[in-house]
Design a protein that fits this description.
This protein is mainly alpha-helical and about 650 residues long. Helix 4 crosses helix 11. The longest helix has 22 residues. It folds into four domains: about 140 residues, Rossmann fold; about 100 residues; about 160 residues, no CATH class; about 140 residues. It contains 34 helices and five strands. A five-stranded parallel beta sheet has the order 2-3-4-1-5, sandwiched between helices. Helices cover about 60% and strands about 5% of the residues.
Length: about 650
């Protein structure tokens, strides 16, 4: 079961309202030129909105709707000319103008060919300065035109191109001056005349996938749109991520003075072209849960199933008031699907489990949601095919993959611990889930009424560390996102996680340092030695490539945190210092490690000894903030050492 990522006419995102609003706007004053932007992040559903617009306008004889995908033209020909020629050719083909408007057709193709001539060599900017394309330009373009006659995919006929060649050869007569502004004005006039002859009351051009294009292609396409902006009865609907277009503007115009504010200019460029912007909102938690349910049920039943159509209708009713709903409940699904409800129980259970955290993890992005679900289902099917599917439960795999995708460090810590445990469990995870479950119970009790129970009074805040818990558990309890993940069903406390680590081996093998590190195991063992010994390994460490150095660092970090003894310098810390000196790119990783330490249980060692190790400006700033925090620590020795180190650093400036 694979969820396709193609644009769709079946609206699962409640974006049909945007499509309807755009259509109403277009029909309000069809005689006026307008440019409309459909904006949203990559994967937000822009292409589907264009598909809905095109589908809705298909039966309107007064409207001609053409679609252009800039990404498909990228690298094949000039994007500006491709769009202009595509619009004109589409108009001629769809309205059979080749016979009843022959001279007008010849005239406008002749003008397009002149623009091709102007683009040759220095481009339009060059010919705008010179005023006249040179004979060499003409000869070169004539050669190009002759070369493409053999391409049967061209929309124009061979006869049209023969005439175009003759026209290009005669474009410039002795003493005649043609400049770009005049030709553009004449092109607009010719195009307007062609619209008159076509009987089209409104030409709508849908432009998609601009944010996938290289900067030059994106800008050329937008420049072609600008050519038509003042032509009556034309409307352009441009689907693009605003941030990507701004990036394209900055790349295309790199010489903008800093004093003009390149970012402001980039935004102004888009806002001057797009008269009416629509932004597709990100999905909230309720909308994500509904979307996931519809995706999974649709994959089971098929989009054309009448029962599925009834469920989509029920979902749309809920999406009219998303703040009043928590998603598609079991009763609603049973009512809509009828006898087919039993076929989708797994899909519904999975949707209930992953919907809430998937909403925050993907920031409501439909494409990311689909990619996650596809990876989940493919891994599960692969496990079944390999013969250990009975040991893998889909809800457990989904919960672990949520951590892998959105809390990767947490996943690495759980996987490493489970791989070392004789029964494949992570004891810190069991403790975390117990805390998260208690916290969830308290939260539900508070929501159910104003009365405070004795359980609430006795409940401790989740982030408060106890004297006996590990540093890893303290780190997890202090993070809201990790506690939210831990509170999800099912509990993993008593689950043997080893089969699931095999399922996720396409990312990393966690079974033993030897299998993960290979020859680097010996390096790790050396760096666990005494300080004087590890100092001599710096030159050897410099021979490691960055990826190998990062592996060694992570293994040492796991040993330090797993040892759970911080009153004196743990084994591996001196090795980490030498490793980071040899590979300065690991400074941020080192500060991450220091930030994760349980400071109230630390001796003085974290606050000193990092001279010549932490040198990069951002890492230094983070470390000094840590010193400030440690200066207020409950650990007297760490407090005094941190305060002294801070005074020394600031006094030396």
């Amino acid at each position: 079961m694979i969820l396709t990522d193609n644009e769709t006419k079946v609206d699962l995102l409640n974006n049909e309202a945007i499509a309807k609003t755009i259509i109403e706007l277009l029909r309000e004053k069809p005689e006026h030129a307008v440019t409309i932007g459909v904006h949203g992040d990559w994967g937000a559903g822009k292409s589907s909105v264009l598909e809905m617009i095109e589908h809705s306008l298909r039966g309107d004889d007064d409207v001609l709707c053409l679609k252009f995908n800039g990404w498909r033209f990228q690298g094949f020909e000039d994007a500006k000319i491709a769009l202009i020629e595509g619009i004109v050719t589409g108009l001629i083909e769809k309205r059979s103008l080749a016979t009843k408007a022959g001279e007008a057709v010849k005239d406008i193709f002749r003008r397009i060919d002149w623009l091709k001539v102007a683009r040759h060599g220095g481009g339009l900017a060059f010919t705008a300065l010179s005023g006249i394309p040179t004979p060499d330009h003409i000869a070169a373009v004539v050669g190009t035109l002759r070369g493409i006659l053999s391409d049967p995919a061209k929309l124009a006929t061979k006869g049209n191109y023969d005439k175009a060649i003759s026209s290009v050869e005669g474009l410039i007569k002795p003493g005649e001056s043609k400049n770009v502004p005049e030709e553009i004005a004449e092109f607009r006039k010719a195009f307007d005349g062609l619209l008159d002859k076509s009987g089209v009351k409104q030409l709508i051009v849908l432009i998609d996938d601009l944010d996938r294009c290289l900067p030059d292609t994106a800008i050329e396409t937008l420049e072609a749109v600008r050519l038509f902006v003042f032509t009556d009865r034309t409307a352009f609907i441009v689907a693009a991520d605003e941030a990507m277009i701004e990036y394209a503007v900055r790349k295309h115009f790199p010489e903008l003075p800093d004093t003009t504010g390149p970012r402001d200019y980039a935004r102004n460029y888009l806002e001057k072209l797009i008269q009416v912007p629509f932004r597709i909102p990100a999905l909230g938690e309720t909308e994500t849960r509904i979307y996931v349910t519809l995706l999974l049920v649709g994959a089971e039943l098929g989009d054309s199933d009448p029962a599925y159509a009834a469920l989509v209708d029920a979902a749309r009713e809920m999406l009219k008031r998303p703040w009043k709903s928590a998603g598609l409940d079991a009763q609603t699904v049973r009512t809509a699907l009828g006898s087919k409800a039993g076929q989708v129980q797994n899909a519904l259970a999975l949707s209930d489990q992953i919907g809430p955290i998937l909403a925050s993890g993907t920031q409501g992005n439909p494409r990311q949601i689909k990619r996650f679900l596809n990876t989940l289902l493919l891994r599960y099917q692969t496990a079944m095919a390999r013969g250990f599917g009975d040991e893998v439960k889909l809800p457990v795999l989904a919960k672990l993959m949520l951590a892998e995708r959105f809390l990767s460090r947490l996943f690495d810590q759980i996987a490493s611990a489970a791989a070392r445990h004789p029964e494949g469990r992570c004891e810190d995870l069991a403790a975390l889930e117990a805390v998260a479950s208690e916290e969830k119970t308290v939260s539900k009790t508070r929501r159910s009424g104003p009365r405070v129970t004795s359980f609430e009074k006795d409940a401790k805040p989740a982030a408060v560390a106890t004297e006996t818990e590990s540093a890893t558990l303290s780190e997890w309890k202090a993070a809201d996102a990790i506690r939210a993940w831990a509170s999800l069903a099912p509990s993993l406390a008593d689950v043997d996680l080893r089969p699931y680590l095999f399922v996720t081996k396409d990312r990393k093998d966690y079974f033993g340092a030897a299998s993960v590190l290979g020859r680097l195991t010996a390096v790790v063992e050396k760096l666990l030695g005494p300080k004087l010994q590890v100092q001599s390994f710096e030159n050897e460490l410099k021979q490691l490539v960055p990826a190998e150095a990062a592996q060694v660092f992570e293994e040492l970090r796991g040993r330090v945190m797993g040892g759970d003894a911080f009153d004196t310098t743990p084994p591996g810390i001196d090795g980490i210092a030498v490793l980071v000196r040899a590979h300065p790119t690991l400074q941020a990783n080192l500060v991450d490690l220091l930030e994760a330490l349980p400071t109230d249980r630390c001796g003085p060692w974290p606050a000193s000894g990092w001279e010549g190790v932490i040198k990069e400006a951002e890492s230094v700033a983070r470390f000094e903030k840590l010193l400030e925090k440690w200066s207020a620590s409950k650990s007297a020795m760490l407090k005094a050492t941190a305060a002294a180190a801070l005074r020394t650093r600031r006094g030396g400036r």
